[in-house]
Automatic annotation (TrEMBL):
Binding site for Zn(2+): 99, 102, 139, 142
Residues that span the membrane, as ranges: none
Record's keyword terms, sorted: Cytoplasm, DNA-binding, Iron, Metal-binding, Repressor, Transcription, Transcription regulation, Zinc
InterPro entries per the UniProt record, alphabetical: FUR (IPR002481), Fur_C (IPR043135), WH-like_DNA-bd_sf (IPR036388), WH_DNA-bd_sf (IPR036390)
Cofactor binding note: Binds 1 zinc ion per subunit.
Family that this chain belongs to: Belongs to the Fur family.
Naturally occurring in which organism (per UniProt): Pseudoclavibacter caeni
GO CC annotations on file: cytoplasm
GO molecular function per UniProt: DNA-binding transcription factor activity; transcription cis-regulatory region binding; zinc ion binding
Cofactor: Zn(2+)
Pfam family, one: FUR
UniProt main location, coarse: cytoplasm
Entry protein name: Transcriptional repressor
Domain of life per record: Bacteria
Length: 153
């Protein structure tokens, strides 16, 4: 049994409220992304394939696009990444920290106050909605491996 933050019944209700049909593919994608945030569409496909072997890559791309369009998913575009990532945490303006060694991604709560939580020096007349920040660093596991390798070398 999955340790979902959104029970499947809640996903059904949210899909209907967004005007989308409840399908096995949509529920599987939401369940997978709830358990594996920051996954790519390819990772979603791989993760749901055992339960839905007939689901195609194009279907998964359509699913994440549709769920993002109605606000049930957030698309995350990280620096130096060719593939968009998706998450179910859509209720706030949070940021991300990414390990430059292994690529691990974690959520970081808003840096200062409420959205957009950072104020640009110039807006060029635009109303700022959010700030997308990716902190880059080295996770503790990679730091330990690097330290151990240096001590052995």
């Amino acid at each position: 049994m999955s340790t979902l933050t959104q029970p499947r019944a809640a996903w059904r209700d949210r899909l209907r409220a967004a005007g989308l049909r409840v399908t096995a593919g949509r529920l599987a994608a939401l369940d997978y992304l709830d358990d594996h945030p920051h996954s790519t569409a390819a990772e979603v496909l791989e993760g749901v394939a055992p339960a839905l072997p007939s689901l195609s890559a194009q279907s998964v791309h359509n699913i994440v696009h549709d769920l993002t369009a109605v606000g049930l998913l957030r698309r995350v575009d990280l620096p130096d990444s060719d593939a968009a990532r998706y998450e179910t945490r859509t209720h706030d303006n949070h940021h991300h920290v990414q390990c430059v060694v292994c690529g691990r991604i974690e959520d970081v709560d808003c840096v200062v106050g409420h959205a957009p939580c950072l104020t640009p020096s110039q807006t060029h007349g635009m109303r700022i909605l959010e700030a997308a920040v990716t902190f880059r660093g080295i996770c503790p596991e990679c730091e330990a491996r690097t330290r151990d390798a240096a001590q052995e070398g």
